[in-house]
Design goal:
By secondary structure, the protein is an alpha/beta fold. The protein is built from seven helices and ten strands.
């Protein structure tokens, strides 16, 4: 049986990742009840510091993969350096450091570090996420499963991709939904617009619910946990064939 979690509508770029709570829980729960513990900060700007913070969690920690700020306040997206070799070197430093801290810590024998990709971050598309998953053994050897990816197809779409959201989401899920190292999937729909409020419950938006239902059934591991918007949860589960 799949575990179901819920999430808020949107999260600002400079805020920590969202807290994914078990479905049916209306208020904050202890860290043990969350899918993961959100870790604040920009991984690419402070890889060593965040590696220590992530390794302190006695379970799963959740982080953005990081970005470099744009040179001008007029730029909507982060600097192109976000996708440069320099950025990947920072990710290497973070993951190598996190692996060392976790593997050396007797207090956190089951700790896992999970990255949440999104548009504008280092991990923001299918190739970058695949590259991250392929490099896990480089950082942690036989303990490669300490590093995970929480897949968020809609969160990885830029404004320019919104008119073709269904095609992009389909490609992302088919490429990563059943991949080793993917620890969950955020399922949502989209109403193209000019603000972060574009994200919608699965049954409301431009992506056909039949497609989302098919991708979940055929493109994802049967036990993969699901994250849904925290509104109309029962309707969403019914639309996905999970009620």
């Amino acid at each position: 049986m799949r575990a179901i979690y819920t999430m808020p509508a949107s999260v600002g770029r400079n805020l920590p990742p969202p807290s994914f709570m078990p479905a049916g829980v209306e208020s904050a729960v202890t860290a043990d009840g969350l899918f993961a513990v959100p870790v604040p900060g920009n991984l690419l700007e402070a890889p060593a510091d965040l590696a220590r913070l992530a390794a302190k969690e006695h379970g799963r920690s959740l982080l953005w993969s990081g970005w470099f700020e744009a040179d001008s306040d007029l730029d909507a997206l982060p600097s192109p350096v976000t996708w440069s070799p320099r950025a990947w070197s920072c990710l290497d430093e973070f993951c190598t450091g996190a692996a060392a801290h976790v593997l050396e810590s007797a207090a956190a024998p089951n700790s896992q570090v999970c990255l949440l990709p999104r548009a504008g971050d280092l991990l923001s598309d299918l190739p970058s996420c695949q590259r991250f998953l392929q490099r896990r053994s480089h950082w942690a050897g036989a303990s490669a499963d300490r590093f995970e990816l929480l897949l968020d197809p809609v969160g990885m779409l830029t404004m320019e991709m919104h008119p073709y959201a269904a095609e992009h989401v389909e490609r992302i899920v088919l490429g990563l939904g059943a991949a080793a190292g993917v620890s969950g999937i955020v399922l949502s729909n989209i109403l193209p617009g000019e603000s972060a409020a574009f994200r919608q419950p699965v049954h409301r938006g431009v992506i056909p619910i039949q497609l989302l239902r098919s991708l979940l059934a055929e493109g994802c591991d049967p036990s993969l946990p699901i994250m849904l918007m925290n509104e109309d949860v029962a309707t969403q589960l019914e639309a996905l064939g999970l009620s």
